[in-house]
## 1
Amino acid sequence: MSQHKGDKMKASDFKLIFNSLKPSNDKNEYTMKHVINNFFVGKTYSNNLCLLLRYTPESFLQVGRATKGISLKYFSPENFFLNGRKTENSWAVVTCLDSILDSLFTVLAEGIKDRSYNNLMNHPRDILEYIMDWQELLASVPSLTEKQLQGLWGELFFILNTNSPEKAILVWEGPNKKKFDFSNKGIDIEVKTSLNRHIHTFSDEQLQEASSPSRRYIYSLYLEEDLSGGKSTSELVNKISDVLPRVEQFEKKLLAYGYQEDALQCQKKFSIKSSRLVEISSIPKVRKKDTGVFNLKYQSDLTFCPEENNKDEIYINLLEI
């Protein structure tokens, strides 16, 4: 077992380590490689990816969890074997039960590594709480319509084209189903995509003047399907992941949004015909409605709305963390 510089490792590094490991020779054992402190990665007899944490003998919980393709089990010293021998430690073992989740599992490895490096995985309950968060996310992943996937494409395009995708993800509220996709420092930006010029559907509430001093904008993308020169949702996700120092927060928000890497719709490719950043006050809207009217939605055409000239300044202020 060789130790790595755990403070420098990303999810992509764990993928390389997992690929280098062979399955164990016994169904009761694990092939393991030391990462940092009490944290190891490994494989089972059946070639499942594992994350293993070593604890003192008295640190042992009786009950683990298994749901949505990820299991957590605890082993006392007498029930855990390395090379045919019992160990003097208790262990927590997280196992990926579904190969579809292998890519996500490397993100879990990155997250646990960070917490181990910062001494936040010193007790079995720490890994239990961490895995529970991921399992709850996986259990509630919604199914996305084609329109929602198109909207996700637009939000990912916005993130990728800011000067700091890492900061953009921190202020990304789209996965939380908030009124605006990006909000921070008194600036709200809603990303809208359309295959029909700059015509979008809005809720009446979204287009009304804010009572707070926030500045509100619509980032309008006129898209076209483009099989040859376009980018897919999956490609945008990979491009963003490549420039992030850590991908855990990004992956959690993607899950909350409903993104699944293997979904066929995520391979549909789009390119930008034109884009516009428009202040909400200049968008055509219903100015007056009868008392008792609510949940009003309608389409507005932003084609002839004046564009903001100080886009860079707006984005800089939005991403000021």
## 2
Amino acid sequence: MNTAIAAWIKKHQLITFFTLSYLIAYAVAFSYINLRPGEPLQPWSLAWFLQIFSPTLSGLIVGWISGGAQEVKRLLAGYTRWKVGVWWYFWAAFLFLGPLVITLTYKALGNPSPGIRPGETIASMAGVILFTLFSGPIAEELGWRGFALPRLQAKFNALLSSLILGVIWTFWHLPLFYTPGATQMSIPLPIYLVLVTTVTVYLTWLYNNTRGSLIITILAHFAYNMTAFLTG
């Protein structure tokens, strides 16, 4: 790579990361929408992987250009920080456990509850869990939390960093509002913006208090997405 370009990327890591994440995700999604109008993006396809993993791919690319193997190793180290204390696992799972307790209490008081969606089996739920774990939590956390958040917090406080990241993360999902089958199609964008930004603040709190554990943020992200699926 041209040394002048590499130097510019090293100086403007966040801009490069966000731009590259958007370019990959938008190019894949809107190309697919134009080539196959009305068809949902096929899970586990190459296009699907490129779109959902664009933050992680971008983080690794910009990390390699700006800091070489040492920076890539630092980013990947977030996946190994699992010794953080049992309470942080509880708080990571709270985005699922909290709504579950409310639902069970509501049902115990004699109120009607729709329960699990009709037709769901153990096998289909296992597939949903695997899909939900990849399509967001594993695919994105290295980029948003591992790469972007520490760099934002080097410039701003945790709250402002979270608000900035929340807005950027929200609009990274914009192609999904036009993708058949995506859950975003049923949510008004302003409400989605509030939800994602609120979750971003929560994930920042978890990340900062677990020494940058991506395991914890992946678990929390997964808990939120599973709750959205079960209540959607």
## 3
Amino acid sequence: MLLKFYKPKNEILQKYIEGYYFLIKKEEEPTVEYLTFPNNYSIISVYENTEVTYHENTAIINEKKGNPFESDLICHYKKPIKVICKGNLNEITFYFKPLGLNAFLEQPLCQYTSTFFSKFIPFDDYDKVMTSLLREKKKKKRREQLEDYWLSKLIGFKHSYLQKILIDIENYYSVSELAEKHKISRQNITKHFEANLCKTPSEYKKIHRFRKALKTHIKKNDTDNLTSLSYDLLFYDQSHLIKDFKSLTGLTPKKFFNSLSTQENGEINWLFV
């Protein structure tokens, strides 16, 4: 199975898209199974001749001729997912930064997804263009056309306070502190988080702190010093850190760190099983 992750070349897109990857798997290659873990990105995957089924935190991606195009959006991402890849596969997956996808959509993000795994066709020409991209064999040309397409759909996103609150919550403000600082009710903050991020502020903060713990671990390369990691990231104590890790990965921090797989940029997305 070939998988290559790219950062956007275009500086404008870099504000909204964390990156994207191309995945190609041949039929003769064995079935691939891996775990993938929660993050605060909006994730879009597009496939050619593929069927994706989801059941009890397991996604099965299987070749299905006669199903020329499929597109899925994942925003409600709070538990680890086991992914099983079978047969010939041709996939492009996009990782949009928090609030990033909103800059390309006419409606709030919640209008495009009501469940964990939602079919996603946001534009009239979307399936035609994405199918063409999937069939493009030259990676350089595919990247150029892909980025040109998203640029053509960029309309921007403006909100009176969400961008500021994201900065504060990533600095570990509580919801009560956010409400007091920005003179907005907790209910109103939660309402706008759910509409534009498909998460509550508490869920967003929990996932952000988990992801920060992963990056801190990679930088320090110190699996055993969980007490230091807890203090660095303002967990209440080590047991709080372990509880969050079990909730988001199904594993204790030590077991998780001993088994993880990272991208070239140090971002952790999956664990092969």
